[in-house]
Design brief:
Elements (H helix, E strand, L loop, with lengths): L1 H27 L15 H9 L1 H39 L10 E8 L8 E7 L5 E8 L4 H20 L3 H15 L6 E9 L4 E7 L4 E5 L2 E5 L17 E4 L5 E5 L1 H4 L2 E2 L2 E2 L1 H11 L5 H15 L8 E8 L1
Antiparallel strand pairs: 1-12, 2-3, 3-4, 4-5, 5-8, 6-7, 6-9, 9-12, 10-11
Helix pairs in contact: 1-2, 4-5
Length: 315
């Protein structure tokens, strides 16, 4: 309000000064007589007013500068608040995957309506030339599930380095989360460890939607091998060892894909399997994008849950 009043007074002063100057010059132009130059003396009135109120004008100028600084700081804070969730999501679900010799990797991530994501995935080489592929989902939306997802992702990295068996790594992770995490943070996770030298892969899952394996011209569902994390601190998780052959394709995803809705119908596991089956030889990145587009086309409303999809082909 003070700044608006100051702006009004400044404009009024300027208008008055120009009006007096215009009138004085107009009257003075009618004659060379000294009396006709008297109106020009009225120009001194706005000048005196300027001198009288100069300190106030300087104070208002300082106030305007302070306000401009506050606005810039507010804009910076808002920009950081908008950028922070995206940067956080990039840590949980990175857009760029590493290049791993002998494997073709594809991924897609679609954030839901929440500001912070609970879905995450990870792809990285472990010891002895093995490759670990992880995908998971923490129930809920907001900062707390997102922090839990970050914790799970990097705890699991450590456990997969300690234990060759992914089932044992998940079991140790469950004990830690049950002891230190929030009981309401139910977590699903799926882990596949590829061993190219042994031509095998080991699969373990804690209550996660089934991964799909295209092998020998057939689709196979890799279902969970234990309950959701934090449900039971003493839960047992086991692994399944499967052969690994060239051109095998494994698809992992979070429940936001299968639970896309059209009225009372879900997109479902069977539709996911059928889309893979149509052309399993396409690029893994293309496969992931086509699955997401198919779910969007199927859904009667925009997808509200996070969707993460990973595809891996043994080349």
């Amino acid at each position: 309000a003070a700044l608006a009043r100051a702006a009004y007074l400044k404009n009024l002063h300027t208008a008055l000064l120009y009006a007096v100057l215009t009138i004085g010059l107009a009257v003075e132009s009618f004659s060379k007589s000294a009396w006709f130059q008297v109106p020009l003396l009225a120009v001194g009135i706005p000048i005196v007013v300027s001198l009288r109120f100069a300190p106030r004008l300087f104070d208002e100028a300082r106030l305007a500068e302070q306000r401009a600084q506050l606005e810039r700081r507010a804009e910076e804070v808002l920009a950081q608040e908008d950028l922070a969730p995206r940067r956080w999501s990039d840590r949980l679900a990175p857009r760029d995957l590493p290049v791993i010799e002998g494997f073709e990797l594809g991924q897609v991530y679609e954030p839901g309506t929440g500001m912070m994501a609970g879905d995450f995935y990870d792809v990285y080489p472990t010891d002895a030339g093995r490759l670990a592929v992880v995908i998971g989902d923490v129930a809920g939306h907001g900062i707390e599930p997102s922090i839990t997802a970050f914790q799970v992702k990097y705890l699991l990295r450590n456990f997969l380095l300690q234990y060759r068996d992914p089932g044992q790594a998940i079991e140790e992770l469950n004990k830690v989360l049950s002891a230190t995490g929030r009981p309401e943070d139910l977590v699903s996770v799926c882990v596949i460890v590829f061993d190219p030298s042994a031509r095998t892969m080991r699969h373990a899952s804690a209550g996660h939607p089934p991964a799909w394996l295209w092998q020998d011209s057939e689709m196979r569902a890799l279902r969970s091998t234990g309950p959701l994390l934090t449900l039971d601190p003493d839960a047992t998780y086991f692994s399944r060892e499967l052969p690994l052959e060239p051109n095998d394709v494994i698809l992992l995803y979070t429940d936001g894909l299968a639970e896309a809705r059209s009225g009372g119908q879900l997109f479902g596991e069977d539709r996911i399997a059928n889309i893979i089956r149509r052309d399993p030889g396409r690029e893994t990145s293309v496969l992931c994008k086509q699955l997401l587009e198919a779910a969007r086309d199927f859904a009667s409303e925009p997808l509200t849950d996070d969707v993460a999809i990973l595809a891996v082909r043994r080349t």
